[in-house]
Amino acid sequence: MKYISTRSGAPDLEFEDVLLAGLARDGGLYVPESWPQFSENQIRSFRGLSYQELAVKIMMPFLGGAIPETDFQAMVEDSYTQFDDPAIAPIKQIGTNMWIAELFHGPTLAFKDYPLQLVGRLFDYVLKKRGERATIVGATSGDTGSAAIESCRDRDAIEIFIIHPKGRVSDVQRRQMTTVHSGNVHNIALDGTFDDCQDMVKNLFGDSDFRDAHNLSAVNSINWARIMAQIVYYFWTAISLGAPDRKFVYAVPTGNFGNVYAGYAAKQMGLSIEKFVVGSNENDILTRFFDTGRMKMAPVVPTLSPSMDIQISSNFERLLFDHYDRDGKAVAKALEEFRNHKSVEFGQGRWQAMQEQFEGYRVSNEETKSGIKNIYDATGELLDPHSAIGVIAGQQCDVAPDTIKIALATAHPAKFPTAVEEATGIHPELPAPLANLFEREERVDEMPNDLDQMRRFIEQKLEERKAA
Ligand SMILES: *Cc1c(COP(=O)(O)O)cnc(C)c1O
């Protein structure tokens, strides 16, 4: 299996190199050269498999022989041992033809555990095989950081540095990062905003001497392996509810477009999905695009669903690539126009083709809160603000009576307790393994927004680790 860049200006890579590379050298994102195909009969034969067994079947074609099946099986099994529901991604019915898939049963309570638990293990496996070590550096507005730390802690071939904006992530989110005391985990609270954190990471990667000296690597949502691992729960939930003999609509609370793009990939691979409903909060660039055909930047505003407070959805580039018939030069040109003018159209035909597959809904803070309450009153399901946006968006979408709608619940309500309590009066409790989170000792270094100091800090920590 070869992977190609969405901007057609970087070398084609095999799976292992795509895993470690993250972003392509031309600034593009890697996608598989072609989509593996599963026939209806194959999909039918997957009924009754466990989540982990199905995961191996779905992902093996993407590895292109890079990892022997028995090794990969062991890695997948190990990845989901810390999940607190035997179904891994349990589904619950909340209406006549409406279901939710709970993707918050991993160790850090957000759906990002589903891909990242595996990605940490894949990194360690490939690095060890090559006799290399890597330094993972990432910026987080909350959920990615804890999921990445949890997947990389205590792995021999990895040091991980996660930078969060000081005072701007929730207490639960911060503590999920800073109370991990593994020697290879380094938390940094930066005096600045999330954008400052992201710029810092970009600048560290932009310094090629520093990057090469410490073998910097990233596990953010543009990493192909994350998308790959997210395809699995689309197959899992649809097959559990009758695929390939039923049709499905997925409603997905969306920020960087990674999660919903994985669903699009599942559809390309043969899963019977009719449509995707993209839920956005007040940062509604995607909803406005699907409605009008014009993608137009607006300032980011803070909302009750902070993991979706994003204006540039990086993974949307992967969808564009297909709609430009995989002409990377044309994609690069369109994105340059967007960067320069903060606004772009991709052409009537492409917009209409995308509208056939995607619908966008914007859900305001007020609607999110009343939605959390209404859904709780009607079904007993207590949802976090992100998950509620998915359900509310899904409820808006009209489908044929025999089509099943599945809304993805992306975080546990206890991860965003303030909004949930304001909406319902109920304080959601953290699950048992995290019950004493607020008694644990925190470990974090505070840093000014200064590139030189950050470089020195990272180098000094790496020196200390080598000496230890
Ligand atoms: C990251 C995140 C999202 C957004 O997912 P994308 O793949 O970036 O679209 C939604 N909900 C929660 C809880 C998240 O952590």
What would you note in describing this structure?
The protein has a 6-stranded mixed sheet with strand order 3-4-14-9-10-13, with helices on both faces. A 5-stranded parallel sheet has the order 8-5-6-7-15, with helices on both faces. It has a domain of 217 residues: 3-Layer(aba) Sandwich (Rossmann fold). It is an alpha/beta fold. Helix 3 packs across helix 4 and helix 5 crosses helix 6. The chain contains 19 helices and 15 strands. The mean pLDDT is 96. The two termini are 40 Å apart. The structure holds pyridoxal-5'-phosphate. Pyridoxal-5'-phosphate binds next to helix 11.
Condensed summary:
By secondary structure, the chain is of the alpha/beta class.
**Tally of alpha and pi helices:** 19
Which whole number gives the mean pLDDT?
96
Bound molecules: pyridoxal-5'-phosphate
Give the end-to-end Cα distance, rounded to a whole number of Å: 40 Å
What is the CATH fold-level name of the domain at 91-106 and 224-424? Rossmann fold
Query: Which geometry do the CA atoms define?
Result: globular
The appropriate CATH architecture of the domain at 91-106 and 224-424 is 3-Layer(aba) Sandwich
Q: In CATH, what is the class of the domain at 91-106 and 224-424?
A: Alpha Beta
Strand order of the largest sheet: 3-4-14-9-10-13
According to DSSP, the number of beta strands is 15
The major β-sheet equals:
6 strands, mixed
Range of helix content: 40-55%
What low-confidence regions span 5 or more consecutive residues with pLDDT below 50? Answer: none
Class by alpha and beta content = alpha/beta
Radius of gyration: 21 Å
